[in-house]
């Protein structure tokens, strides 16, 4: 399972705004192009482990500052789906 975690965490650290928009549509998360770009800029290059509750919470709080609490909650639900 560790390789699966590494793949997901790597993808989060290299995601683009366009990819976030695509995933948003796929998982019914409302996000604007500007929000997606800002979130992707924040995540890019970060070594985030969404399988660690503390790290995921920290990232979701930053996303809430960028895109608002509703979007952050939706992204957190998506992260949790990835970790199951």
From TrEMBL:
GO molecular function: methyltransferase activity
Keyword Transferase: yes
Gene Ontology terms describing biological process: methylation
Domain of life: Bacteria
InterPro entries (UniProt xref): DUF2624
Alphabetical keyword list: Methyltransferase, Transferase
Protein name: tRNA methyltransferase
Origin species: Cytobacillus solani
């Amino acid at each position: 399972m560790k390789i699966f975690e590494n793949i997901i965490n790597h993808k989060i650290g290299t995601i683009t705004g366009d990819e976030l928009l695509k995933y948003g549509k796929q998982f019914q998360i409302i996000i604007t192009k500007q929000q997606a770009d800002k979130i992707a800029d924040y995540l890019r290059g970060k070594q985030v482990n969404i399988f660690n509750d503390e790290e995921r919470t920290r990232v979701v709080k930053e996303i809430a500052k960028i895109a608002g609490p509703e979007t952050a909650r939706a992204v957190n639900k998506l992260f949790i789906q990835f970790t199951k």
